[in-house]
Amino acid sequence: MKLLLQVCLFLVLGGLAAWLINQDSGYAFLAWGDWSVEMSLVVLVLLAAAGLGLLYYLLHFLLSLIRLPFSVSAWRHRRRKRRARAALTRGLVELAEGHWEQAEKLLIRDAHVSDTPLINYLSAAQAAQRQGLDERRDAYIRLAHQHLPTADVAVSLTQAELQIAHQQFEQALATLKHLRELAPRHDYVLRLLARLYRQLGDWKHLSKLLPELKKSRIYDPDRLAELEVLVYRSLLQDAARSVEASRLDTVWRKMPRSLRQEPRIVAEYAILLHRRQRDEEAEQLLRNSLKKGWDEELVSLYGQLAVLEPSVALTRAERWLQGHELDPVLLLALGRLSLRAQLWGKARRYLEAAIRSGAGAAAGCELGQLLDHLGDTEAALQVYRQVAMEQSGSQPVPLPEPISTGNLNDLEHPQPEAELLELRLN
């Protein structure tokens, strides 16, 4: 469009000049010393224009000669830039295809003249990492820092990711702590730090990180809730292994109130109390938790406690039958409490009801043991057979009653190996 306007302007000006010349071509007389020249004004104008044009091109040529070294340098620089871009593209392709050594060579070859040296060095660091060359990886990371100091967060994040992937957890932790100083509210730094603490099993520091994880909302609520349960269950387990006896209770008291009502946390704490022969405390804990909500795991644990007054615990647990009459977990728990209270008849009824409700092998083993101790060997064997069949997952081959003893000769006189082979082939 611009070119078209220029052409139109020149045509208009040319037409106007031609009209003026046609009206009067003018007259010009030039004199210099003894020399004089007469010509029309039009010819003078044309000669002046030609002279100016010649002078312009002559000066342009001379300037081009002067600027030739700079032009050659700029051309070489543009050529290196194009080569660097091509090398970066090929290097990234080689990296994606798993050709680590070739990718590294391409990425660092022209990195110093690349438009994006940060990408070159970080990608080269990744290629070196895949080859197990930690020193070269760290050197590329340092070069990335030097070429773009303002991208310290991006470079350090890449370094931390590579260190975690190579299981260099101590170095990764140092890098992430440095990042926390640079960008304390950076979501991805927080996510990587939480991931690293989890891999290290550093539940104490991860628990301190949980409030920030909640504020940042980098995890959805369900995932964050699962992480909280994992952290505090692990803290309880670590405390139980400690030589300091009071540490378990200290962890429980410092735990957020909402988590002390989480059934999985309650179950873990009750199990640890049971292992320390603190069943009375575990009974009260489970009973209070079950008042707030029904949970089968807690009911099952309640039935396994060795409390001082099992009959009292049984009476309390029997109140839960209202609304859960056919719950196999509750029936098994009641049977176990009845056994501890030495109420054999009630224990047998609860265990049989638990088996009918689908309590499985656990109830069968309890009932079989009770019947065996009561002297009802036949019934105990029947229960054990049923448990064995349920655990095997398949029914045995049906046999006639009674089994004929005439077919037992093959047990007394085993067939030769050749006959057995023939039977297999047939």
List keywords for this structure.
single chain; 426 residues; mainly alpha; Serine Threonine Protein Phosphatase 5, Tetratricopeptide repeat; two-stranded antiparallel ribbon; 22 helices
Summarize the structure.
The protein has 22 helices and 2 strands. It is mainly α and 426 residues long. It has a domain of 73 residues: Serine Threonine Protein Phosphatase 5, Tetratricopeptide repeat, CATH 1.25.40.
Number of helices: 22
CATH fold description of the domain at 320-392: Serine Threonine Protein Phosphatase 5, Tetratricopeptide repeat
Classify the helix fraction into a percent range.
over 70%
At CATH's second level, what is the architecture of the domain at 320-392?
Alpha Horseshoe
Low-pLDDT regions: none
For the largest beta-sheet, the strand count, sense and barrel status come to:
2 strands, antiparallel
Helix and strand succession? HEEHHHHHHHHHHHHHHHHHHHHH
Structural class: mainly alpha
What is the CATH level 1 assignment of the domain at 320-392?
A: Mainly Alpha
Average of pLDDT:
83
**Number of DSSP strands?**
2
Query: What share of residues are in beta strands?
Result: under 5%
Query: How far is it from the N-terminal to the C-terminal residue, by CA?
Result: 94 Å
Strand order of the biggest β-sheet? 1-2
Q: Please state the overall shape, judged from the principal axes of the Cα atoms.
A: rod-shaped
CATH homologous superfamily heading of the domain at 320-392: Tetratricopeptide repeat domain
User: What gyration radius follows from the Cα positions, in whole Å?
Assistant: 46 Å
